[in-house]
Amino acid sequence: MAIATINPATGETLKTYEPLTDDAVDERIGRAVEAFRAYRLTSPQERAGWLRAAADVLDGDTDAVAELMVTEMGKTLAAAKAEVGKCAKGLRYYAEHGPAMLEPRPADAGAVGAEDAYVVHQPIGVVLAVMPWNFPLWQAMRFAAPALMAGNVGLLKHASNVPQTALYIEELFRKAGFPADVFQTLLVGSKTVERVLRDDRVAAATLTGSAPAGQSVASIAGDVLKKTVLELGGSDPFIVMPSADLDRAAEVAVTARCQNNGQSCIAAKRFFAHRDVAEEFTRLFAEKLSALVVGDPMAEDTQVGPLATESGREDVEKYVADAIAKGATVVTGGERVDGPGWFYRPTLLTGVTPEMDLYDEEVFGPVAALWTVDSLEEAIEIANSHPYGLGSNLWSEDEQERATFIRDVQAGMAFVNGMVTSYPELPFGGVKQSGYGRELTELGMYEFTNAKTVWIGPRSSQQAEGTTASASE
Ligand SMILES: O=CCCCC(=O)O
């Protein structure tokens, strides 16, 4: 894919970029290494100050960056502004808590025969971040804030359809006062990722993206024995039990599925309603889905904008056509919006079976599949049969059902009476084909640190004194 800004609401190509040459990439890696030499010696308090400054810069740039994201990938303006706010919050979170997270953690020195023993988290160097277009600012910030706080330096290979946002992120850290080259954007195609990852000067990589992209990065990193964190696809279940507040559950179901125009790894994609409430829940869900305003993402009242790419919409159309051909029922939607731009109507399907392609894939668009189940156990069994295990949602007032869900659902995140959302205060990540490692909180920061064990024995002079004393006794 060419590196270009193409407005998804119109299909118009607005700006194109030449990818960096291999020599330019090598030179940028060299600059990152140089930057790391000094940056690793800065204090956590200094880094916290720069993170706070970056949050302030973002606050000031909110409208401009939000409009840029809308233009590059089509999310609604309201969603884009919320994303900018979330990034500022994430930066402030690490500015506030990062220094304490990096304090040495004392161990029981006596138990290991030491005078002192502790663990200290040290930066590991240059970290490559391969990031997707769906939350173009947040996904990069979720990596950058903890990584820079820990003293690492970052190289960002962003998705090819959000180059201006990618360049803005580099500029943001510069404007905030971080030392030069601590965070650089590499405008390169995906083929260059292997070259960067294999470079001895690069210590580790994080990727948020598709499972095939994750496999590729993991296998290269495995070959050169480098640490990776992978946040891949999701097809989160959303289970509605009879005790749930159905109207509220249906309202949140719509947001959970259609957030970001249906293009989020943690969007709820598979819905399970208990037979006792299935008819009513389906009615409410379909009604609310069909009431969504689809249109110009810059308009204030728009709730669902276009899909980010033409091929993305074609993929969604293929999944729905295949399901219909194999017997699924379209309750609402099921078609593109005529006219320019890559719009697709919020869609609800029932009667989805394992023969249909969308059964065990991830549909990256506003398409929900709904099953009627006879028990929570049945819902969990179908949910767990999917290769992904990112987030999961349960709606129930019943304590026993909540406990069963939390115990048995195969997911990195379990949300009850709410939708899966990322917060700096909670770890984020999945199991199975959804990847490994965690982002956010101190866990996210420690992924790219060397947890160095320090054991310090008594000084030789003390040992000698001890020997002399016991000899004279
Ligand atoms: O595609 C992944 C979406 C993550 C969104 C979030 O962190 O809120």
UniProtKB/TrEMBL annotation:
Question: Would the keyword 4Fe-4S be found if you checked this record's keyword annotation?
Answer: no
Keyword tags: NADP, Oxidoreductase
Mention one GO molecular function. aldehyde dehydrogenase [NAD(P)+] activity
* CDD domains named among the record's database cross-references: ALDH_SSADH1_GabD1
Name of the protein: Succinate-semialdehyde dehydrogenase/glutarate-semialdehyde dehydrogenase
Domain Aldehyde dehydrogenase stretches: 3-454
**Similarity section:** Belongs to the aldehyde dehydrogenase family.
* A Pfam family recorded for this sequence: Aldedh
